[in-house]
Write a structure and sequence with these properties.
This protein is an alpha/beta fold. The chain has a single domain, classed as NAD(P)-binding Rossmann-like Domain (Rossmann fold, 3-Layer(aba) Sandwich). About 45% of the residues lie in helices and about 15% in strands. The protein is built from 9 helices and 7 strands. It has a 7-stranded parallel beta sheet with strand order 3-2-1-4-5-6-7, sandwiched between helices. Helix 2 links the parallel strand 2 and strand 3. The longest helix has 28 residues. The protein is globular, with a radius of gyration of 18 Å. The structure holds nicotinamide-adenine-dinucleotide. The site of nicotinamide-adenine-dinucleotide has 29 residues, from helix 1 and helix 6.
Length: about 260
């Protein structure tokens, strides 16, 4: 895989923890410059500090992807401080375990806003900046819930399905500007959010891990590496893809009957 991203600037949303943090660290490890943004400014600062401690270059910004004004200001600040933007990683997202009947209207709109509309808003600001560099890439972190429904995750599944199709749409629209747009669809990944959920529900971890053929959760780095690959020149002919990284969960289903034959 491409080793040297020297001078290439990646803007990462939700970089303060989990998959976003792993992407920020992986980009920096390969020599790229990171703009680490998160709604938790302390978390963004801490990741940027970690990168600098390891000899990399990073900027940090507090950024809630629900706010258009904040996004505009963050992209303007990032472009002037880092000298431009080559890559956008849309990572910030959240979940809500409710079905349509249980959900309040505000909860539906909030999940769609955080997970889907944020990708629209950030990409809209990123594209003119990436065009100024002669091209680049956008990588959206969707979910396997965006290609296969998960029970009691109505708004989450709808938002992530939207991210997959928005990815394909932008891949078509921005190819003439040499901007490739791809998505990653992770399966269960051991991030702070998921670990908090597991702590509150002993026994669920094994049950969830057993759903996939590899029988374990992904580590955040195992999602970050394919995400960084999609943004690299090694993926120069890849655009409009939704790369499933799920330990085989969506590969197929197992019939107990066939095991016995
Ligand atoms: N962990 C998984 O199993 C899994 C699986 C599939 C998809 N994903 C997706 O990966 C992405 C990252 O998930 P994670 O598990 O690493 O989450 P996480 O909760 O561990 O970290 C998410 C980070 O995003 C930030 N964030 C949340 N809402 C934000 C907002 N409105 N604006 C800016 N920052 C915000 C949080 O402060 C946090 O630092 C999400 O889009 C999630 O849907 C995760």
């Amino acid at each position: 895989m491409q080793k040297n991203f020297a001078g290439k600037v990646a803007f990462v949303t939700g970089a303060g923890a989990g998959i976003g943090r792993a992407i920020a660290l992986e980009w920096a490890r390969r020599g790229g410059i990171v703009v680490a943004t998160d709604m938790n400014p302390d978390a963004a600062r801490s990741v940027a500090g970690e990168i600098e401690h390891q000899g990399g270059r990073a900027f940090n910004l507090g950024l809630d992807v629900k706010s258009l004004d904040a996004i505009r200001a963050a992209f303007a600040s990032a472009a002037s401080r880092a000298g431009g933007i080559d890559v956008l990683f849309n990572v910030a997202g959240t979940n809500l375990m409710k079905n349509v009947e249980e959900m309040a209207d505000e909860e539906w709109y909030s999940i769609i806003d955080t997970n889907l509309s944020s990708v629209y808003r950030c990409s809209k600001q990123a594209v003119p900046e990436i065009r100024k560099r002669g091209g680049g890439a956008i990588v959206n972190i969707a979910s396997i819930a965006g290609i296969m429904a998960e029970n009691r995750c109505a708004a989450y599944s709808a938002s992530k399905g939207g991210v997959v199709l928005l990815t394909r749409n932008m891949a078509m629209d921005f190819a003439p500007y040499n901007i490739r747009v791809n998505a990653i669809c992770p399966g269960s990944t051991r991030t702070p959010r998921i670990e908090g959920y597991m702590r509150a529900r002993p026994g669920h971890e094994r049950a969830i891990a057993d759903l996939c053929p590899l029988k374990r959760f992904a580590e955040p780095e195992e999602i970050a590496r394919p995400a960084v690959f999609l943004a690299s020149d090694d993926a120069s002919y890849v655009t409009g893809a939704a790369l499933v990284v799920d330990g085989g969960l969506t590969a197929g289903f197992k019939l107990p009957l066939f095991e016995e034959l």
